[in-house]
Amino acid sequence: MRGGASSQPPIGQCIESLGSGNEMVRIFSHYLHRQTLLHVLFDLGLILFAVVAVVLSQGDSASSVIPFVASHGLSLAGCMFVINSASGLYQHVHNRSITESCARALLGLMFGLPLAYAIFSLLPLATGHRELVTMAAMAAVAAVMVHRVYAAHSGAQSRLRTRILIFGSGAVARTVGQTLKEADPHAQIVGYLAGPNEENPEVPLAEMIDSRGSLTETARSLGVDEIVVALSERRGGSMPLRQLLDCKLYGIRVVDIATHFEKTLAQIKISHVNAGWLIFGDGFNQGSIRTAIKRVFDIVFSAAIFIVSLPIMVVAAIMIKMESAGPVFYRQERVGLNGKTFKVIKFRSMRTDAEKDGKPRWATVNDDRITRVGRFIRKVRIDELPQLLNVLVGDMSLVGPRPERQYFVDDLVSKIPYFAVRHSVKPGVTGWAQVRCEYGSTVEESIEKLQYDLYYVKNNSLFLDMLIMFETVAVVLTGKGAR
């Protein structure tokens, strides 16, 4: 198959290279690692299997309560999913030490074991049977935690990676290769294949692949699962569309560079996206139903969090007042939905003379304007809790882009493409950028955060909101993340 016309492959061959490995799956517009999804299902199934199997082993005397046991098992499995998600045990992280994974697992056990005991102590079983099922449930919880640590460090995932061919050899292809290796050290990059008009490669020569006929023939002979089109030059016949279509018909995934970064890094790379891709692609669904669901979610959860955290806020207010003179709360104008301004409310974490010269300054990691109490409440996000009032009155959402000051917005809109797009949704107390990267105190760091914000605006859903809430808990527990 060269150049133009070619025969289509048989149907059986079209599906033979659909690929296994650790590819991404899309759930409610959000990309997840398939391996992560399989781990979640395995853990949930393990708990359910353990408790039902114990009941079945007791014979007919206990078989009548299987529906009750199964429902309790599902409840425990759901609780463990929340605990593991909040502990960060389902995050796709490659540089986490085994010590940190064990610490997170032990934290999960501290919550999971009492929950298992509480849930199964209510079963309508004879005392002996109930104790046996309860012990099985607690053992299953422990097994889930062991599996979480084992899965993260066994190296089994590295043997299931998708085989990726990068079609291109210029600066764009080099960027794709670098980001792939940073996002996943075990990524199986088969190599780089130069495009028709690319003569001076900017990628490692040792990783260049010699053509084995057409692009389709080369990809099939190498057992490629996915091709990332990263050509520096796309004009003058540089894009072999028919050959790329043939690859797709043979079951090889073909993605452009913008989609590659979206699914691999969960961000929209500004340097490799254009208005057409944003306009004609999917996403950016802000319909009335989604808006109504999100508002109900905001009211219910922000009210619940506010009530639960009220004692913490009282203690924080007392500590702030004892440390330094000045107001407990800090009110400041921020830019919200559709560019409308509002007054955000937070606990004061800086000195009262933080901007005595009247010039706005970005907060930084080791900002000397932050008080001792302020440093602690910022680290564990207590200073953000009063923003729940902004959520209840409708100025903010629980999840969304961080609200910025008008001074910074005016500056960043003039310097960064698509920055104003983040104002098409309500700002949030937490957000995708906040749980994914550190402080943004420069234009470059603001671009990095914007790329996560754009991903959220494009793919936002109740499912993604819940994932961000879980990851926020993990950030609070570990003291990591952005502000």
UniProtKB/TrEMBL annotation:
It is a multi-pass membrane protein. Residues 294-477 form the Bacterial sugar transferase domain. The keyword Membrane applies. It is found in: Membrane. The keyword Membrane applies. Belongs to the bacterial sugar transferase family. This is TIGR03013 family PEP-CTERM/XrtA system glycosyltransferase. It comes from Roseateles oligotrophus.
